[in-house]
Amino acid sequence: MSVRSGSDTLNEELKHLQLLNSGFDALLHTVSKIRSDLRQTAETANASHELLDCWSMIISQDKSVTDYLNDPEWYGASRWKTVQEEVTQDLESERRALEHERARLLKANEEKKTLEAAKARRIRDREARLYGKKR
């Protein structure tokens, strides 16, 4: 074997290894691209899932609104606001009536205490006159 043929063999092996390295680089690049594509597919699937949830909620709300509009007993938000105002007015009237009743009862209680105190004073005065003269 000559030096030349050994050098040629080494050069052939080098070219063969370079081709293998080039193939491995292409394979690594392809695997990297596949990984990137899979990541993007997963992100797209998540976004699609979120959009599907959003659309499901919108369709559900649409069904609720349709049910309200088709309900003959539903009068709309303006009617409910009027009902709420009426209830608020009724509650306020009731509160005022209760306040008035409370004030009336407090006044009646004070008058009763005053009358009882006057009665007790008259009884003491009468007893003082009766027992004071006899003693």
Automatic annotation (TrEMBL):
InterPro entries: DASH_Duo1. It is found in: Chromosome, Centromere, Kinetochore; Cytoplasm, Cytoskeleton, Spindle; Nucleus. It comes from the Eukaryota. Signal peptide: none annotated. Its main location: nucleus. The keyword Coiled coil applies. GO terms for biological process: cell division; chromosome segregation; mitotic cell cycle. Keywords: Cell cycle, Cell division, Centromere, Chromosome, Chromosome partition, Coiled coil, Cytoplasm, Cytoskeleton, Kinetochore, Microtubule, Mitosis, Nucleus. One of its GO terms (cellular component) is DASH complex. Residues 84-118 form a coiled coil. Belongs to the DASH complex DUO1 family. This is DASH complex subunit DUO1.
